[in-house]
Automatic annotation (TrEMBL):
This is Phenylacetate-CoA oxygenase, PaaG subunit. Pfam families: PaaA_PaaC. NCBIfam families: PA_CoA_Oxy1 (TIGR02156). One of its GO terms (biological process) is phenylacetate catabolic process. One of its GO terms (molecular function) is phenylacetyl-CoA 1,2-epoxidase activity. It comes from Actinokineospora spheciospongiae. GO terms for cellular component: cytosol. InterPro entries: Aromatic_CoA_ox/epox (IPR052703), Ferritin-like (IPR012347), Ferritin-like_SF (IPR009078), PaaA (IPR011881), PaaA_PaaC (IPR007814). PANTHER family: 1,2-PHENYLACETYL-COA EPOXIDASE, SUBUNIT A (PTHR30458:SF2), PHENYLACETIC ACID DEGRADATION PROTEIN PAA (PTHR30458).
Length: 315
């Protein structure tokens, strides 16, 4: 499809990146830059949408009206995030239909974290604290990503993610001030989610071959290991304030590095989950497929309505 790009176009693209300006949808861009963005934004959009499932699981069993209202608002925010990101992806010339198709057939991925089950209400708090917390670490630098529509979507998403993180932390704090049984629920939940949360930053830098190119293009602003370190350093004092123990015997402050040393997640488990063999992969996709099929009549009606409107306008 592409012929050799005009040197002037390449030069303009490179100069835009060098000035830390945004690349916009109508600007010329290398095909590999476009493909990398589509892959990353799609994976991000799918994560928002699939990510509604583990918490949605608790909507009908929230312990109070207040908790239900908070959880409902949070899950709806995630739907909105998915939609902004699918729209950003469409500006690169890939339709939402195509992206959904690729998700359902396993050709595009979503974050490994959403393949873990939610077993107690404490998980709603832990997901907010650790999973949305990790998402914030990943996403704040993306507000400065080089592709305009993606960066602008991230600004709004990050504001909502910080509400998600706080509601989770506040829920855990309330439980920690409750009964022994509630405190045990929180600790058990943190034990299950800590390592999968560390995996959210992706494999170690040495095993992440695309990072260098993505950084050169200004799509990524920090490496996986840098972000993981930042997340650990941020979470340790929060865990202390909460009164929970992070399940890592190697976790300790390193005076020399002015950062925490910590253990490695089980990378074999990570690879298995990414491959589709996590605890809930099949269930998540099956649920998404059913929702997609159930929505077929809405898409058909909207398409028919749009066609009729267009017909009326042209008369
Ligand atoms: Fe989100
Ligand atoms: Fe969130």
């Amino acid at each position: 499809m592409t012929t050799v790009a005009e040197p002037a176009l390449v030069e303009h693209f490179e100069a835009t990146l060098a000035r830390h300006d945004r690349i916009e949808p109508r600007d010329w861009m290398p095909e590999a830059y476009r493909a990398t963005l589509v892959r990353q934004i799609a994976q991000h959009a799918h994560s928002e949408i699939i990510g509604m499932q583990p918490e949605g699981n608790w909507l009908t069993r929230a312990p109070s009206l207040r908790r239900k209202a908070i959880l409902l608002a949070k899950v709806q925010d995630e739907a909105g995030h998915g939609l902004y990101l699918y729209s950003a992806c469409e500006t690169l010339g890939t339709s939402r239909r195509e992206l959904t198709e690729k998700l359902l057939t396993g050709r595009q991925k979503y974050s490994s974290i959403f393949n873990y089950p939610t077993l107690s209400y404490a998980d709603v708090g832990t997901i907010g604290w650790l999973v949305d917390g990790a998402a914030i670490c990943n996403q704040v630098p993306l507000c400065r990503t080089s592709y305009g529509p993606y960066g602008r979507a991230m600004i709004r998403i990050c504001k909502e993610e910080s509400f998600h993180q706080r509601q989770g932390y506040e829920l855990l704090l309330t439980m920690m001030r409750g009964t022994d049984e509630q405190r045990a629920m929180v600790q058990e939940s943190v034990d299950r989610f800590w390592w999968p949360a560390l995996m959210m930053f992706g494999p170690p830098d040495a095993d992440s071959p695309n990072t260098g190119q993505s950084m050169a293009w200004g799509i990524k602003r920090n490496t996986n290991d840098e972000l993981r370190q930042k997340f650990v350093d941020m979470s340790v004092p929060q865990a202390e304030a909460l009164g929970v123990t992070l399940p890592d015997p190697d976790l300790r402050w390193n005076e020399e590095r002015q950062a925490h040393d910590f253990g490695q997640p089980d990378w074999d488990e990570f690879r298995a989950v990414v491959r589709g063999d996590g605890p809930c992969n099949a269930q998540r996709i099956e649920h998404r497929r059913r929702a997609h099929d159930d929505g077929a009549w809405v898409r058909a009606a909207a398409t028919a309505f749009a066609a009729r409107q267009a017909g009326e306008e042209s008369r």
